[in-house]
Structures are given as C-alpha cells and as structure tokens.
Target: FAD/FMN-containing dehydrogenase
Amino acid sequence: MTETAKAAFIDELNAALGAAVVTGEDIPAPFRHDWSGLPPVLPIALIRPRETDEVATALKIANRHGVTIVPQGGLTGLAGGAQPVAGGAVLSLDRMSGIEEIDPVMASITVKAGTPLEVVQKAADEAGLFLGIDLGARGSCQIGGNLATNAGGNRVIRYGMAREHVLGLEVVLPDGTVVTSLNKLIKNNAGYDLKQLFIGSEGTLGIITRVVLRLQAKPLTVNTVFCGCRDFPAVLDLLKGARARLGPALSAFEVMWPSFYDFMTGKLSELRRPLGRPHGVYVLLEQSGFDPEADSGRLEAVMAEMLEAGIVEDAVLASSERETRDLWAVRDSVSEYGKLMGPITAFDVGLQTDRMADVIAGIEAAYQARWPGAILLVYGHIGDSNLHLVANVPAAGDHQPHDDITDLVLGAVRAAGGTVSAEHGIGLLKKKYLHFTRSDAELALMARLKAALDPGNILNTGKVFTL
Model:
C-alpha cells in the first residue's frame, strides 16, 4: 500500500469514527500480536468500535480501499488467527462488551461479542443457570473469539464445542452488511443455518458482534477425583467405565502423561502433588449432577470398582472447594509455560482415542532421537479425542526448530488419520498443514465460500488458507 493510499484510508476512518481510531506508535503493544508467539506487527490502524454500526462503517471503508482487517478478541489464540498483518488494520471488539439480556424461560443469554467468557459465566450463574463453555483463558478470552474459533475446553465431553451453545448471531459481512439473526429458538429449521458459516471461520467470513447463547441447568453438585493409572489402556477402561456408570454426569476427563505431571509439579512449588507415588498416566475426572444426597456416593462407588479391578492404582477425591481448586490447578498450570520453558512449540491435535498411546510413543521416540534431552509435555481432554503437546529444545534457546518439530508431530498425526487442529483453529501457524486434514474438495469449497462472502479478500487475509 502506498503512503497516499494509506493516508486516504486513515483519513476516511478518522472522519467516520473519530476517537475509535488509533494510528502509529499510539497503538498499544498488546494489539500488535496474539499469544501465538509470532513477532509483533504494527498495524496501520487500530479500530475499537462500541457498536455494531461502527463495525459496519469500518468494514465498508476497508472494502472500498482494499485494506485487510484483522478481527481481534481477547488475543488468547495460539494459532496466529488474531495476529496483525503488514499493511493491514486491526479491529478490536474489546469495547463491545456487556450482557444485554438473560431469558430464564428460554434459558438463553444475549451478549456483545467482546464480553469476556468469565463475565458471561458469572452472569449465567447469578441467574441460576450454567454456561457449558469453559477454557483456562476464561478471564481474558472473549465470547466472539470463542465462537470464531469454535473453542473447545474442559467440558466438551458433556456439553460439546462452542457451536453447540449458539442459538443466534449478529454478524457484519466484509462489505459492511449487518446480518442480525438473534434467534432464541432451539428448533428453527427455516432455511440454511447461517450462523454455522461464521462459527469456526476465524474471522475470515464476517465479524461476530452479538450472540445468543443457550444455557443449561446449573448443576447442584460437582465432584472431582484425581486418579493414577498404570498405563493408557487402563485410562481407556476408566473412561468407558465412567461413561457407563455416570452417563451425562461425566463432565470432564482430563489426562496427563508423566512428562507433563512431573515437569509442572516439579517446577511450580505452589502445586501440590495429589498422589504420593508415581503412576503411568494421571486422570482428573469430574462429575456434576443434581442429587446432592446421592452424587458423591455414586462417584465413590465407581472409583471403588475401578480400584478393586486394578484399573485405577490410586485416587484422591476432593472433599472441599479448596481441594477441588488444588486438583484442577495441576491441569490449569499450562498458563505457566512461558515462565518455565521459554519459547515453545505447542500442538492441539485430534486423534482417535484408542490410537493415542501408540502415536505419542512414536512421537516421543522420534523427538528424543532428533533432540536428545529436549522437553515434550503431553496432556489433553482425551474424552473428546483432543490431545495437547508442548515442545521445547533447551539447547536451541530462542531459536527453536519450530518447523522441524511441527513436521515431525503433525506428520505423525496425519499418518494416524487425525486432525491438525482440535480446538485452536488454523490461523497462520497451521495453514500449510491444513491439507493434512482436509481434502482437495473441502479446501476448494472453503475457497468458494470465502470468495462469495469476501470477494475483496479483506477479512483476515492470508489466515486459514490462501485464495
């Protein structure tokens, strides 16, 4: 973009949106990058609208000038989806925050897209209801970004991915057209379900501005147990047994390999080791229900059976909220990676659950053969076939072999018929690996949808795939 074209774009933005526009070095540092680890990029403008019509105005102007707009939410993404691009502007939803309505009869909540997830959770809780979406970044991530990436999280095994919670959306298309479909009905089969086009599209097809979310009955009980299992086949037996005995009351099933458990509990003095002796694999299991007199007993009975059968070697059942927080703290310690490891290469993959142990063993062997003594931490949700790996080669310092590590890990995932992204999206970092998971016909259809809705290719240009 020439300086003259850039100046014309900024002048029109300023005239239309005034104080909502920031340029040059006045753009705060946090808006120059997301959590992906990519180097900061100074956008030509930062747009911070307060209302949907301001989003529409910004996109109309960008469309006329052919300027890329990168939508930004809480900037907690790990795939580079909210990373600014050179010569482009960023549009942050951070000022479009707030609860508009809670409908206790329809069990729905209407919110602006920039509302932090934790704020929505608390509003639902105060109304005696429950939002089934939950992520470790709940205090920072925004609901619009959760939907744009179809976020997963800790309770997918019971409540499903983010798209399962959406009843209606308001979206601004790349040409500035506002599509308002704030539906509250669970059953609405009138034509195409257009909201599904935008959920998981990573801001490449439209910018979500308002949302109607489906809420659930608020569980009356939550019980948590931390288990040690001999090996991964025992973990699978535990999962099958818990599903059979607890049914929909099974609300979380988090698995940690010793690589993760030993490293994090060894490095973080504030983490208490839940179990006294080492085990082959660790499981954090949560049950939530509606029978205060019986629920705890049901879980205790299940664990007694698992212990007697040798499926579980040892277990500790939380008896207070503090103990529950301590058990979850081990799994949620992932937020400390940067402090403990420096630069990392992180993976969010999906694999058929019964293949996970063999795939991980193969990856670990190949990784250590290539980089002896390097760190590879493995954990995941497992109950929904989602696995996370975090790699660091200490000898490489700040110059981590990201590409070589990624080729190794995602090559193994591809060979096992898995997906290169289970819940974090594609963004920039996984774009060249998308064909590992999607067929040529699927990629061609994605390109046709992008061309139809964004013929000027201004929304999150270059993310997910290249036209």
